[in-house]
Amino acid sequence: MADQRAGRGPAITCAALAKTFGTGPAAVEAVAPLDLTFAAGELTALVGPSGCGKSTVLRMVAGLEAPSAGTVTLDGAAPADLQGEGALAMAFQDASLLPWRSVRGNVALALKLARKPVDLAAVDAMIARVGLAGFENARPAELSGGMRQRAAIARCLVTQPRVLLLDEPFGAVDELTRARLNTDLPALWQAQGTTALLVTHSVREAVALADRVVVFSSRPAQVVADLRVPDLLALDSAEGRTLMAEVTAALSQGWADDPGSGRHAAQ
Amino acid sequence: MTRFQISRRHLMGMGLSGLGAWTLGMGPRAAFAQTDVALQLSWLHSVQFAGSYIADERGFWADRGLNVRLDSGGPNAPVEPPVVSGTALVGISAADYTAAAVQQGAPFKIIAVAMQNNPFAITSLPDNPVNSPADLEGKRIGMATANTPVLRTLATLNDVDFDAITIIPTQYDAAPLIAGEVDCLLTWSTDIPVSMYVRGIDPTVMLMADFGYTLHSQTYIATEDSIANRRADLVALIAGEVQGWEEYRRDLEAATDLTLARFPDAGLDRDTQLEQARRQVPLMFSDLTDEHGFGWWTDETVAQNIETLDLLGMPVSADLWDRSILEEVHG
Amino acid sequence: MIRARGDMPRSRAMAGAVTLAVRLPRLSREGAQAVGGALAALVLWELAARGLAGSYLLAGPVDVARYLQANSGLMGRALAITLENAALGFVAGNLAAVALALVVVLIPRSQPVVAGFALVVFCLPLVATGPILRVLYGPGPGPQITLAALAVYYTTFIPLMVGLRAAPASWFDLMRVYGRGAWTAFVQVRVMAALPYLLAGLQIAAPAAFLGAMVGEFTGAERGMGVLALRAMRGLDVEATWALATVAAVVAMLAYGALGWVARALAPARPEVLLAPPPATALSGRAGRALRGAGVAALTLVLMLALWWGVMEAFGLSRFFAKRPDDLWAFLVSAPTAAENRAILWEASAQTLTYVLPGYLAGLGLGAVLAMVLVLAPGLAGAVLPVAVALRSVPIVTTAPLIVLALGRGAAGTITIVAVMIFFPALVACLQGLRQAPGQVLDVMATYGAGRLTRLIHARLPAMLPAFFAAARMSVPAAVLAVTVAEWLATGTGLGNLMALTASTSNYNLLWSAVVLVALGSAAGYALVGAVERRVLARVAPEQLR
């Protein structure tokens, strides 16, 4: 059922997808019933206030969280089917590198977990492509935050996934490094035709990287805006500024009464 | 250690066939029809048990078809449990310990007595001596509080005002006396005073047995079941002990040297061991033993023991003692 | 500076993390301080010995060296036999700890029962277990090895149990995203994440194993360091006594240092540190938790009773010394003298409690305070820590009489002995905790020009609390062990004395009643500290409780 052409990503369909954590009076509705389709090969940015449930959507797409209601399908297949094939990859808010493995070891681990042959030449090539050539043997503790995130991206990409899920991977990185990551990295996956979802709270990052920006309200997550980003949009052009203003406006509109509480809903 | 030495001695006699039997787990018993038994000692190996080492080394037990393992004691190794459970055929206890165990339901009998005279003593320094129980009044005595009944009994026996003695709880150690924390210590006459003597401090030692505290010590105990069903082994074991201790008395130096040679890793000091060997002679041998043999007692001494035990709060009857084994040994 | 700290130096903060390890001197300056501290300690020791000359209490380093030179063969053989038993016990105890931790991780529901069971067994006083083990094993090294194993398994089990869970959730998500299950997560994440915790446990275990083997020799061994120590103390041989104490301390320090080195070599990068035990229950609501807690306690109790009974029956141990639960019931409840028996126990317990409580609190407090002092004056650490390790490693059996001489035979001496046993682990744990204050928080304080004291109070102290409580929990059994040993060997009071008396009175009902009291009391104390810990950590360090 899934698209068998190597590297070509599936379309992702969320149908009446909802998630509630806990039961009884302590229940927290993280995601209200949601109908959304993400086109194959596109990068969609999900933006919204902190704790709005956008990470939960991502985790349900990854098959890490079971929906309370509704379904997620990837070209008709369940997330779990793609997990086994190593066709899914996810980058986390913190880089989540295993501290006892070198950069090379961490990247190679993805191949091992995906049951693919561990080709160290390919691993090193991927490390070089994210700009970490020379740091193959370094331990995560010896790297800066930005370098660790790049190593995590290399780990995601080395298995040539068909679905790439990025959960605020640059959230902890300073603005300068983030800008550089944003210009360097998209080329890596765009060439592969991967379907990608990027959770972020940076409007600038969303508009710069994505083909489409979906803006969520505060918890429970509901779509307040769904905007297409024209190809080759320059951020400092009038059009780019207008789009960013639109996203920002949608964000503040969706910023309902109580945005602060319930950080755990996003975990 | 003990086991190894026993086996080595036998191996020399047995040659390779014996070695084969030993390694097959049959032991010399199969080769010689010997019975393996254990004797549970009451403290760490030292000249305190030299008679047993002599019995072992000179084959006094082997000649009687017995292969005796000597199990070391220690501060956390009570004698009574291994004897009750059969790990040891015989244990070395003391009349008061045995009486207490019998009170708690253990089926013990005293079958021989190594120390006719109780080794308890009041040790003091010569410039502030305790020569008689009366001297205790107004003094601070260092001892384990558990021994309070012992001191009370001594006071009662000698019409001493017990309340005029101050008890200071101490570890079993001469240091509090030397440091002047206490005026005297309740000790055995054969250990702490010896350590002090060897180090050049010759203490005044008042043996409590000289002042009416009559209580058998280093008594050999066995269960009623063993006395009924393992008589031959018991007789052989005690006979070996008797012979060993008589040899001991004949040559204290040889007994001391044997002890040192047998336990090179025990940290024993020759001067201390020899002095201890000397000082335990008057406790173990008396006119009574000269007449009847080592380990003996009479109805009269038992009666005195019962009186002391009564004062200690441990009423017993003469049944606690069973002389039938000794009678067979000496008969 | 600030940027660099926020970015890079987690590695530094982490390098000092988890392990309750004292860092070996790395820099020459630290090295010089360590050497200076050691020299100062040696000089003090020699002066104290000279001051006490003629009292037969303390031999100085010169006499000790002379003794060791003259008796190297004797010492070497004793050391070899005790080391061998300690090593076997160390291996056996730690294997048991690993097995228990695996059970808990693979069957999470078993955790409260297994942990409670492990704690109670750890709290069994060796005055009682020693003779039983001797009867079970007969002659030979069995009891020594077993007591060494019993001395170590718990201090490995607890950190290991925590360590096997101490990984960020995203590491497990990573495994799942690739469709891999619990086994892969166990091999790839849990085992490696637990390694530093295991090594920290092993490091604490090494000196404990040696002391366990030494005390095990009191059950009737023929050779070894414990046998020599007994002989030396009884024989007024202070040179030998302190030579033995010195060798034991040096062995303990070497083992501690060597395992610390192995830990740093094997696991240089450490994950975030979790020191709180996992919650006993997943039920929400206070009533539900209490109910579940009571159920777990009851189940543990029933299992303990069954095992107690079962072992004694299985080995056919005589009721004369191996009392069953029904014997104790008769002794304490249904016998005509029951009230009298209870009164004896009650009095002894009260006596013990008046020693153990102040000693425990003083030891913890002292450890925490000294840790703070060392943070405020970091130059001192290099000199003080090695001395503290050495002091902790000297067997309590030899130090107890000295402390009693210095402070008298009353409460002060015993309380001090307990405090000394608690003080060192508390110091090391608190020091580790204090060093874990996040760099960014400290930098924020620095930007406001906050001094060392302000930083200590607002940033370091909260960071210290998890480690402090971990030490406080583990110190409960240690304090009880210390007080019973001190009572047994030095003061002749309380439960320790009551248990030791059994050797002459054969009152094994009293002994086993005391054993049950001590074990249950330690377990209750542990649980109480754990409850306080959860309350406090819920406020200052909720991440420890997830």
Key attributes of the depicted protein:
heterotrimer; B: 331 residues; alpha/beta; D-Maltodextrin-Binding Protein, domain 2; 5-stranded mixed sheet; 45% helix; globular; disordered N terminus; C: 546 residues; MetI-like fold; 2 domains
Protein described:
The complex is a heterotrimer of chains A (267), B (331) and C (546). Chain A is α/β, with parallel strands linked by helices. Chain A is built from nine helices and nine strands. Chain A is globular. Chain B is of the alpha/beta class and 331 residues long. Chain B has helices spanning 2-23, 27-32, 50-57, 80-85, 95-103, 148-157, 175-178, 192-198, 224-229, 231-250, 252-262, 270-284, 287-292, 299-311, 324-330; strands at residues 35-40, 66-71, 90-93, 108-115, 120-124, 140-143, 166-169, 184-188, 204-207, 217-223. Chain B has a five-stranded mixed sheet with strand order 2-1-3-10-4. The longest helix of chain B is centred in the first third of the chain and has 22 residues, at 2-23. The radius of gyration of chain B is 21 Å and the shape is globular. Chain C folds into two domains: 55-273, MetI-like fold, CATH 1.10.3720; 323-546, MetI-like fold, CATH 1.10.3720. The two termini of chain C are 33 Å apart. The longest helix of chain C is centred in the C-terminal third of the chain and has 40 residues, at 452-491. In chain C, helix 3 crosses helix 16, helix 5 crosses helix 8 (142-163) and helix 17 (396-407) crosses helix 18. Chain C has 546 residues and is an all-alpha fold. Chain C is globular and about 70 Å long. Chain C has helices at residues 2-7, 10-15, 28-51, 61-70, 72-106, 111-122, 126-137, 142-163, 169-177, 182-216, 225-234, 238-266, 286-314, 325-334, 338-376, 381-393, 396-407, 411-435, 439-447, 452-491, 494-505, 508-540. Chains in contact: A-C, B-C. Chain A: Residues 12-243 form the ABC transporter domain. Chain A: This is ABC transporter ATP-binding protein. Chain A: One of its GO terms (molecular function) is ATP binding. Chain A: InterPro entries: AAA+_ATPase, ABC_transporter-like_ATP-bd, ABC_transporter-like_CS, ABC_transporter_ATP-bind, P-loop_NTPase. Chain A: It comes from Rhabdonatronobacter sediminivivens.
